[in-house]
Write a structure and sequence with these properties.
CATH class of the largest domain: Mainly Alpha
CATH topology of the largest domain: ABC transporter transmembrane region fold
Structural class: alpha/beta
Helix content: 55-70%
Order of helices and strands: HHHHHHHHHHEHEEHEEHEHHHHEHEEEHH
Radius of gyration: 34 Å
CATH architecture of the largest domain: Up-down Bundle
Number of domains: 2
Strand order of the largest sheet: 6-7-8-3-9-10
Number of helices: 20
Largest sheet: 6 strands, mixed
């Protein structure tokens, strides 16, 4: 289960890094298990010696037993230390690599999945996987210990041995069926848990909006539905599992009592000594423990399989598409942008059904490609060209494809056909560093980190000088606000920039973009949610950049783009006109009506 298919990443890649520590942990734990076996056998021997009135030998045996107990306790403590050292290292490495892999996924992948899908896989699943693997080591040693004891008990009398092995066979058949059902139900539980995590994240992030427009009751209903769904699938999983466990335990308890009855009969017929009967009686719990551990270890393997599949799907599953880059490095990016016969569509995929997949025999399981159930064509043969160091804007009704152009331009999305060119080079052929360093994107709702203003800026350029930082702040028209703060640039802004207004967040994001000194700066509806004063500040910030970089703007408010060099007017995925603001206002009735409607 832990082996990887060729060219695929799996848990064994990580375990190989810590071979010595894992071997040491297992060796110490096995030694503890060996001590447990000796303790049980010595205890059995001590009972025999007591019944034979050999008291001195019995006392000696008990003292040896005490020594074994001390060694076992030391082994358990040592294994705990080893586990803490290496388990935390493996979990940290998994968390970090999964987080890094999440950065490699393209934006469409994030759009097609819920937030909880990634949070659970990156944060929770590594811990579950490592803890379950440690539990398995514990259980295997317990199983081996119990097996030795049961084999020993079985040798005391052939009839007792036959009963034990018949019981084990019956319980194992029952257990195989339980594991199959458990694994299927557990996957459903995880999916329901992902939905709850996604909704909770959204509620925390949008707390103000929820209160402002009175969505508490509505979201409470949605939350209740999600929790009810989770409760339903979790209840079904637990109840089904409990039914299997109870049935199996009832069989074990019944047979265990009947075995003691058989033991009494055998003692009565002189086919079993009283000492042997006492050994069977005192170790009767090992039979229950063995079957319980065998069942529990199946759960753990199922959990490991589920966690491993979920985590490494981020690396191996075609459903999670990574960004792809070329190797071309442009020394001096001028900032010319061209769309050449670009085609692009949004696809809706059918919901994946794990139940159908789980029902297939293992050898017939093949990862199904998700079927496209609906396609929304946005562009077909879209063509335009933007000259270097010019300021252009894309305008049009909602749904006309404005933001999609920016996502294709910055390679957040990949074209279905045609090509996007920067300085005459297909962006798919550019290296990641070249492309990302050439483009800065300021979103409508930029993410501001829970740091100081200066630390947020240094994220864009870690070696920026104070002079460069001050210039970026001034060009972003952010200096007046910072001057009013007691701690100035060292003021903490809170999670998501909660201590800043919308306009202040925008200006901080613009300063961050300017600090990168990119050849192309993209503004995606950066003023649509701002008041007139904040809007004027952002306009002034953008005006400060004119002629220094290629500036591309998407704006709902046409008044914010009066001074751009060219406007591309979009309608239903097509550029129906282009020109300066004055030219379009004079010659294009649709554009004129949009502007007039905005200013009524």
């Amino acid at each position: 289960m832990l082996k990887n298919n060729k060219n695929k990443i799996g848990i064994s890649n990580y375990l190989n890094h810590y071979k010595f520590g894992i071997f040491l942990y297992i060796a110490v734990y096995v030694l503890a298990a060996v001590m447990s076996i000796f303790i049980t056998l010595l205890f059995a021997r001590a009972i025999e010696l007591v019944t034979l009135a050999e008291y001195v030998s019995a006392v000696t045996t008990f003292l040896v037993l005490l020594g074994c107990s001390v060694v076992r306790r030391i082994c358990w403590y040592t294994s705990g230390i080893i586990y803490q050292k290496y388990a935390t290292s493996i979990m940290a490495e998994l968390n970090l690599d999964l987080a890094k892999q999440a950065f490699k996924l393209n934006s469409q992948t994030y759009s097609n999945h819920e937030t909880g899908t990634f949070v659970q896989r990156i944060v929770s699943d590594p811990e579950r996987l490592v803890n379950n693997m440690a539990d398995i080591v514990d259980m295997i040693t317990e199983i081996l210990s119990s097996l030795v004891i049961i084999v020993y008990i079985s040798t005391l009398n052939i009839y007792i041995g036959l009963v034990i092995f018949a019981l084990l066979a019956t319980c194992m058949i029952l257990e195989m069926n339980r594991v199959k059902v458990f694994r299927k139900n557990r996957r459903k539980t995880r999916k329901a848990s992902d939905k709850i995590n996604s909704l909770t994240t959204e509620i925390v992030r949008s707390e103000k909006d929820i209160k402002a427009i009175g969505l508490e009751d509505k979201l409470s209903e949605v939350s209740k539905k999600y929790y009810d769904d989770y409760k339903r699938v979790n209840y079904k999983t637990d109840m089904t599992d409990m039914t299997f466990w109870s049935s199996r335990n009832f069989i074990i308890e019944t047979v265990s009592i009947l075995m003691l009855v058989l033991g009494v009969v055998l003692v009565d017929k002189a086919l079993l000594t009283f000492a042997s009967f006492m050994i069977i009686y005192s170790n009767n719990g090992d039979l229950y423990g063995l079957i319980w551990q065998l069942g529990n270890i199946s759960n753990k393997f199922s959990e490991i399989k589920i966690c491993s599949d979920r985590m490494f799907a981020l690396f191996n599953d075609p459903e999670f598409v990574c960004e792809r880059f070329g190797g071309i490095e442009l020394e001096n990016v001028k900032g010319e942008i061209e769309f050449e016969n670009v085609c692009y569509s949004y696809n809706d995929y059918e919901k994946q059904d794990d139940e159908e997949e789980d029902s297939k025999p293992k050898k017939h399981k093949v990862k199904k490609q998700r079927k496209i159930v609906a396609t929304n064509k946005i562009f077909e043969d879209l063509n335009f060209k933007i000259k270097p160091n010019t300021t252009v804007a894309f305008v049009g009704k909602s749904g006309s494809g404005k933001s999609t152009i920016l996502n294709l331009m910055s390679k957040m999305y990949e074209v279905d056909g045609g090509q996007v060119l920067i300085d005459g080079v297909n962006i798919n052929d550019l290296s990641k560093n070249c492309l990302r360093n050439s483009i800065s994107l300021v979103n409508q709702f930029p993410y501001i980190f829970d740091m100081t203003i200066k630390e947020n800026l240094l994220l864009a350029k870690k070696d920026a000088t104070d002079e460069e930082i001050n210039k970026a702040i001034k060009d972003a028209s952010f200096d007046d606000f910072i001057a009013t703060l007691p701690k100035g640039i060292n003021t903490k802004v809170g999670e998501s920039g909660v201590k800043l207004s919308g306009g202040q967040k925008q200006r901080l994001a613009i300063a961050r973009a300017l600090l990168r000194n990119s050849s192309i700066i993209i503004f995606d509806e950066s003023t649509s949610s701002l008041d007139n004063f904040a809007q004027e500040n952002i306009k002034r910030s953008i005006d400060n950049l004119k002629g220094k970089s290629t500036i591309v703007i998407v704006a709902h408010r046409l008044s914010t783009i009066k001074n751009v060099d060219k406007i591309f007017f979009l309608d239903e995925g097509k550029i129906i006109d282009n020109g300066t603001f004055e030219q379009l206002f004079e010659t294009n009735e649709k554009f004129k009506n949009m502007f007039l409607a905005e200013n009524i």
